[in-house]
User: Fold CRS2-associated factor 1 like from Actinidia chinensis var. chinensis.
Amino acid sequence: MFVFISRTSRRRWPPLSLSSVRQHLLYSSATTTSSSNLYDKYSFKPPISLHKSPNPNPNPDKTSTTTKKAKPPYQPPSSLDRGGAKPTRSDLPFDFRFSYTESDPAVRPIGLREPKYSPFGPDRLDRVWTGVCAPAVDPRVGSVEDGKEDPKLEEKRAKMRERILGEPLTSAERKALVDRCQRNRTKRQINLGRDGLTHNMLNDIHNHWKHSEAVRIKCMGVPTVDMKRVCTQLEDKTFGKIINRQGGVLVLYRGRNYNPKKRPAIPLMLWKPHDPVYPRLIKTTIVGLSIEETKEMRKKGLAVPPLTKLAKNGYYGSLVPMVRDAFLASELVRIDCQGLEKSDLKKVGCKLRDLVPCVLVTFDKEQIVVWRGNDYKPIEADRFFMDRDPFDNPDNDLFSGPEEQNSDDESNQHGFHSGTSR
Assistant:
């Protein structure tokens, strides 16, 4: 067996002859011809969609109507490219501020937290931003100290307001307007929150006056501590008249001669400017006391039972009379403000200091502790700002209706979280 394998492996094949090569070539050519005939017979053409560049519109007569237009490039609202537009000019006779109720022009700041960038946008207003306001008198004002209100502006505002209001409303007309602004009659309402009467809110009020003669304004939070200032600023900046007030709900009338087509031009603020730097409200030591006496008073004030608890976005119109009454029995008063922002605590304390008046002791642990001082004198009751004001005629029956009484009860429920002392 092994011998056979060795003999087979050593076998040599004879060399190929010319005739065998010719026969091999002829056989290969015949095979190629037959294969090409089969391809032509059984081949297929692929559909149009499989081509690399198909025709999107096979019917040239019909045009597609679903083509979308290209979106324009995004342009931010504060873009520097204004297209050659001129700055907006406003003839309103008062200085433009972010908040007219929460800022006092008589109190000057000690510094600014940001450069004097105008919140109205670059080159959008013909007034110069001083860091606090945009004065209406001299557009060349370059600092906060130079911006003083012209005494003629107040006289000009009084004349404009008198011309727009016209003749005073009668009792029947006033009752009809107040009835239209009730919650069960309309849902149109402007909310005045923690920032108070802002500049952009003036534009909202004029937009509401396009559709109705009066607008309902609901005041909530810190500005309600001083409702007298809120009402004064609303009438002074809008040239309207408040015809009804129940707690924190106001009804602002536009006037007989008001023309929506001739409304004043009110440029809008594009962002909220940073608050300037004011002097500290809480000093290291209270005036007239030593450091040890100040520490002892702060410790004692935090241990006093709270007079009341302020609810977030509540109505604080009765806070000042309550503090004044509490000072008749105690020299220290504590107000619980848990849940309120720290800036709101400072604003409420600043208003109490000016309205009561009193001395601020501390803001620790979300509490407001005030001291009546050594020379405290009670304020007469006639200086209080009533929750219900008599308008024009003191003998009218504006508040005798059941709807007004119900709405007043609802507004009082939104006041303090706890109306009684604990």
The first helix runs from residue 2 to 9. The chain has ten helices and eight strands. The first strand starts at residue 190 and ends at 192. The radius of gyration is 41 Å.
